[in-house]
Amino acid sequence: MSRFEMPLGDTALAVAYYKVEDGRVVLLHTEVPQELSGLGYGSMLALGVFEALRRGGKRVIAKCPFMSSHAAQNPEYAVLLDG
Question: Which SUPFAM superfamilies match (predicted)?
Fold first, then answer.
């Protein structure tokens, strides 16, 4: 399993775990430290992840409910989704 990382200050990280399956990026799980939850860091991470995948011409399967919801709310990312 691999992950995208977004540093949050000196010690904390927001992460989005993924794997590559049949040439598609499968987004599995997103984590933001609980003490920083609700501050928009998850959305910033999702934006960075989807932008990187779009620039790379990748197709995406969003098994992570947070990433799936983010894509559904942003049509420019929803077009990347398979399944």
Answer: Acyl-CoA N-acyltransferases (Nat)
